[in-house]
């Protein structure tokens, strides 16, 4: 049994087998699906786990409860990595009452055909369990329409946040930040946020405003460690990311077929470094998964992208990356770009169209276009682009 505080138990599971979260995002360190049990006069479960882990989940519940029943299940988020065990759970606990909001129950009916034994709650409403009082906060679009958070007030103030403040990375024996080395989780939190929640900066800001002023001893997210010593740090990180605030630094990403466009990227990076930029990340978009590039685009203010022309259009992997960036509505960035062609020019103008029509970042320098291979003149143009970006970043 893993007690977090005050008869609130961790009953979640680890998934070290899945390769891609949502079929899209690599999981080199796995992921946890967190669920929590409040053992009070009324027993209350907060969220469930991915259905493939139901056997482990039910063992975790029995370890705390034995043969006792569960009175309530709060569903903070309906995405199946958290609601997936709902239908099976009802077979073990047929009298369980499900607590959610109107949108929760619309989805519960659609996903699982379950409509009975529900208690609908609205923002700010409370429910007494005995020694714990639950209060519900509607936090739509963090990151689905039905998402909400549940605050448990008792000896400790514990906020169950759904996906918010979560991160990739399975739990390796310890569950609370005070008991573990959290170092590896911070970048995975940025990658999780930028990939999964990143589009919803305004809803995250609205949620943070709703929570402002509430004392929180523990943040219990549905993914990653329980935050206790780092409550302020994770809230500040979410605040910064949802405002699209960045650190000084430069991401240069490029597509390349035979290394010529890559050489342009190297020239730009070298010039930016010589000009004094310390944080530079250089990525081949065909080699590094977009989730890591997005993570660093969220972190750093400067972005320079480049690619060859391919089939009279933009090199496919760069097209996909720019679509991912545009999809996140990322703001407050500087952009420069470059490209190449062998006989018909397109890549440079295509990147320009991406920025004008979708990204709306502030352009730095003139785009550099290369025909076939580097010349001394193109080398100097690349270096100039690197220096101009550096000057802009360092001036801030
Ligand atoms: Fe962890 Fe939005 O599901």
UniProtKB/TrEMBL annotation:
<dbReference type="GO" id="GO:0010181">
    <property type="term" value="F:FMN binding"/>
</dbReference>
<dbReference type="GO" id="GO:0046872">
    <property type="term" value="F:metal ion binding"/>
</dbReference>
<dbReference type="Pfam" id="PF00258">
    <property type="entry name" value="Flavodoxin_1"/>
</dbReference>
<dbReference type="InterPro" id="IPR016440">
    <property type="entry name" value="Rubredoxin-O_OxRdtase"/>
</dbReference>
<comment type="similarity">
    <text>In the N-terminal section; belongs to the zinc metallo-hydrolase group 3 family.</text>
</comment>
<dbReference type="InterPro" id="IPR036866">
    <property type="entry name" value="RibonucZ/Hydroxyglut_hydro"/>
</dbReference>
<feature type="domain" description="Flavodoxin-like">
    <location>
        <begin position="250"/>
        <end position="390"/>
    </location>
</feature>
<dbReference type="GO" id="GO:0016491">
    <property type="term" value="F:oxidoreductase activity"/>
</dbReference>
<dbReference type="InterPro" id="IPR001279">
    <property type="entry name" value="Metallo-B-lactamas"/>
</dbReference>
<dbReference type="GO" id="GO:0009055">
    <property type="term" value="F:electron transfer activity"/>
</dbReference>
<dbReference type="InterPro" id="IPR008254">
    <property type="entry name" value="Flavodoxin/NO_synth"/>
</dbReference>
<dbReference type="InterPro" id="IPR029039">
    <property type="entry name" value="Flavoprotein-like_sf"/>
</dbReference>
<dbReference type="Pfam" id="PF19583">
    <property type="entry name" value="ODP"/>
</dbReference>
<dbReference type="InterPro" id="IPR045761">
    <property type="entry name" value="ODP_dom"/>
</dbReference>
<protein>
    <recommendedName>
        <fullName>Flavodoxin-like domain-containing protein</fullName>
    </recommendedName>
</protein>
